Amino acid sequence: MRVPLSWLREFVAIDLPVEELARRLTFGGMEVAQIHRIGVEGSPLPWDPELIVVANVLEVRSHPNADRLVLADVDYGAAQPHTVVTGAPNLFPYRDQGRLPHPLKAAFAREGAQLYDGHAEGWVITKLKGRPVRGVMSDAMLCSEKELGLSEDHEGILILPDDAPVGMPLRDYLGEVILEIDLTPNFARCLSIVGVAREVAALTGAPLKLPDPQVVAEGPSIIGRAKVTVHEPDLCPRFMVGLAEGVKIGPSPFWMQRRLINAGMRPINNIVDISNYVMLEWGQPTHTFDADRVADRHLIVRLAQPGERLTTLDDRDRDLTPSPESG
């Protein structure tokens, strides 16, 4: 299980060095197999707090000598904006529109910063050096996810939320420490962020801060509009269903996507991501279904039948095992 410390800290104060926290968890029966660091000190690529910061793209202009490049005027908290030469395709729609009327936040790196080479195979660290690019001096970058070590995506620059603070070190805004914990079956209570927080509180004496979530159901009754049948009550003694209507499918917020990624899950859309987020945070298994694609809005809980297959959300075709051991 991957536990991002920023998420864990929402429920319990952590004043110990991460290595000491990992030691206490391990001696408490929750073996910390690995500590992953992203952007912070001790990571494979620490983000220099002076050279890699949050910036706002003010304007995108055509490059005078290249159709596949643009010039981005960037505010990174200095007295004057800085011009960056970039070929990021996700900036092209803003070309020659004048000063942008809304924030367009990005990760900005100045000369001397160490980044991953976005064009190299694998993970090759390089130092950013100024040089002319088609007649225009370029001594800074707007960074892609690969250049920061966040993923292998180098198709465009990383776009940050509108409220990302200009000038803040990216390390402070996006850096993370993740505990990878190998849990044994007797520690199933810890298969969630809240579960791990309880253990941390018990092991360190820090107070546990649990919210009291309240679910408010509005609108007409669900009775007669959705149904659940459980064929194996010994294996599934309780299955609850709710109905949400009028929802709009789209991407989930940036912060939620990053947390899911750091916890080892792939963001899909706002509805699926919310379901997975709640499951990871509280340990309550949840799943969302498109009500219009469920026959008669009738969910049937049963074991798989011989020869059945299922294509899951990661587009993998899976054989199903017709026995309780299949999970």
What do you see in this structure?
The protein is of the alpha+beta class and 327 residues long. The protein folds into 3 domains: 2-39 and 175-204, Phenylalanyl-tRNA Synthetase, Chain B, domain 1 (2-Layer Sandwich), CATH 3.30.56.10; 52-172, Nucleic acid-binding proteins (OB fold (Dihydrolipoamide Acetyltransferase, E2P), Beta Barrel); 227-326, Phenylalanyl-tRNA Synthetase, Chain B, domain 3. The chain is 17% helix and 25% strand. The chain is built from 7 helices and 17 strands. It has helices at 5-8, 18-27, 145-148, 170-174, 193-204, 254-262, 270-282, and strands at 2-4, 31-38, 52-63, 66-75, 82-86, 105-110, 114-116, 125-127, 131-133, 136-138, 140-142, 159-160, 176-182, 227-230, 298-301, 309-311, 317-319. Strands 3, 4, 5, 6, 11 and 12 form a 6-stranded antiparallel β-sheet that branches. The longest helix has 13 residues, at 270-282. The two termini are 18 Å apart.
